[in-house]
């Protein structure tokens, strides 16, 4: 199988190329990755908003994977990457008309999320569904070496805040487990949810890191102090208010395909986070 990954130089895209096991790999990105070059993947330099180049790039591949993300998901760039970029990819696949598989990384809680991030993801999914042979992957928070969350949780845990909101369930899933599920779900046409089984709130994650660093645990913020605790945390600049709000949602799904079918012993986030807090990973 030949695959091309849009956003391949990012955390999910890089790991997808390295772990999926395709015979031939390419990644379409504005940024070259030494890690992927060393792996033997072909770099196709380009912007996902360049319609002609995107449509040309998707030719010759059996599977098109979209793991592109913007650096600032509050601004118009997020809409451009997720919606207009997806439109370009869909046009290219339709023009080739060879039953290519389209895999799109979305997010659990799409139907519940009220932020711009979730709204844009919903619009992007609508475009993906224009391709008959599609797979929408809705993971919970994805962790692994080099992920976008763990180092910031560790940093925030060391900042000395005494109270954190306690609701939510991150249900983190390891990147290797996620890709294993995808490899076994390629015959599926539609959407799959993939989450970890163990409950872990944002406060639990903070206290796991604090314990590993030898600090006292933070306390749950009460109803009256919840808003002020979110404001104080976001003012530190580690996570935005929108990100903190996302952490307080429930990402567990009973119908997740991860545990019941394809991964006998899913990786646990707690020891991974503890190791990171101690300077590992």
How would you portray this structure in words?
This protein is α/β, with parallel strands linked by helices and about 280 residues long. About 40% of the residues lie in helices and about 15% in strands. The strands form three sheets. Strands 3-2-1-4-5-6-10 form a seven-stranded parallel sheet, covered by helices on one side. A two-stranded parallel ribbon has the order 7-9. A two-stranded parallel sheet has the order 8-11. The two termini are about 30 Å apart.
Unreliable stretches (pLDDT < 50, length at least 5) are: none
Provide the helix percentage.
40-55%
The CATH superfamily of the largest domain turns out to be: NAD(P)-binding Rossmann-like Domain
Tell me the CATH architecture of the largest domain: 3-Layer(aba) Sandwich
Which key phrases capture this entry?
Rossmann fold; alpha/beta; two-stranded parallel ribbon; globular; seven-stranded parallel sheet; about 280 residues; 12 helices
């Amino acid at each position: 199988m030949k695959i091309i990954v849009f956003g391949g130089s990012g955390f999910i895209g890089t790991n997808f190329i390295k772990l999926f096991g395709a015979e031939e790999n390419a990644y379409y990105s504005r940024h070259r990755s030494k890690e992927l070059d060393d792996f033997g993947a072909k770099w196709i330099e380009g912007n996902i908003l360049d319609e002609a180049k995107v449509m040309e790039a998707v030719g010759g591949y059996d599977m098109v994977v979209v793991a592109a993300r913007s650096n600032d998901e509050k601004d118009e760039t997020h809409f451009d990457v997720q919606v207009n970029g997806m439109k370009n990819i869909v046009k290219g696949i339709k023009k080739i008309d060879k039953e290519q598989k389209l895999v799109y990384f979305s997010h659990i809680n799409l139907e519940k999320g009220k932020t711009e991030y979730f709204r844009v993801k919903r619009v992007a999914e609508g475009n993906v569904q224009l391709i008959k042979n599609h797979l929408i992957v809705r993971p919970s928070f994805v962790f692994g070496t080099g992920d976008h969350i763990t180092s910031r949780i560790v940093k925030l845990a060391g900042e000395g805040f005494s109270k954190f909101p306690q609701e939510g369930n991150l249900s983190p899933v390891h990147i290797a487990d996620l890709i294993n599920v995808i490899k076994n779900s390629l015959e599926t046409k539609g959407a799959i949810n993939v989450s970890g089984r163990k409950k872990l709130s944002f406060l639990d994650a903070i206290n796991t890191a604090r314990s590993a660093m030898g600090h006292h645990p933070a306390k749950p913020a009460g109803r009256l102090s919840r808003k002020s605790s979110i404001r104080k945390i976001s003012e530190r600049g580690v996570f935005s208010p929108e990100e903190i709000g996302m952490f307080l949602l429930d990402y567990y799904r009973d119908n997740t395909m991860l545990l019941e079918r394809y991964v006998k012993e899913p990786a646990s986030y707690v020891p991974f986070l503890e190791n990171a807090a101690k300077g590992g990973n």
